[in-house]
Design brief:
Shape: globular
Radius of gyration: 20 Å
Order of helices and strands: HEHEEHEEH
Strand order of the largest sheet: 2-1-5-3-4
Strand content: 15-25%
Oligomer: single chain
């Protein structure tokens, strides 16, 4: 009797979960540069221009605007002059929103299911933080910057 109830309850739960429509991440992205609150857009930010600190500056800009930067570092081939945002999930609206937030014009689509990010940011040597970041007082660092802890 107990086993039959468990099987019926499990079947009902699976049926309910299957009937739910998948939320579309793309419908919840504003292309003006900010994600809708509650939408998680995972990004990697890579310094491809060889200028020290660019990935950290871009990460600060993106996190202030609600994006989730899950990795930052240097690109393997660090000699790019032009910055670009690369769509990794097949939805250019996500990449366009990120590009608008950083003032980047070059947006590409190279879906890659092996990367667990929605978009990759490749910062070329010409990229500079938006004016709002430059207006902050000198010495103010985000609490999550491990370099400032030592």
């Amino acid at each position: 009797m107990v086993i039959a109830l468990v099987i019926i309850a499990a079947g009902a739960t699976v049926g309910i979960l299957r009937s739910r429509p998948e939320p579309s991440r793309a419908k919840n992205v504003e292309t003006r540069g900010r994600p809708v609150p509650g939408v998680r857009i995972r990004l990697e930010v890579l310094n491809a221009g060889g200028v020290s600190g660019m990935a950290g500056d871009a990460t600060a800009v993106l996190r202030e605007q609600g994006f989730d930067v899950v990795f930052l570092g240097n690109a393997e081939a660090s000699s790019e002059d032009i910055s670009s945002v690369i769509d990794r999930v097949g939805d250019m609206r996500i990449a366009a929103a990120v590009a608008n937030a950083l003032g980047i014009r070059n947006v590409l689509s190279e879906p890659d299911s092996n990367l667990f990010v929605d978009a990759s940011v490749m910062l070329g040597s010409e990229w500079h933080p938006p004016e709002a970041v430059l207006d902050k007082p000198a010495g103010v660092r985000a609490w999550w910057n491990p370099r400032s802890w030592f």
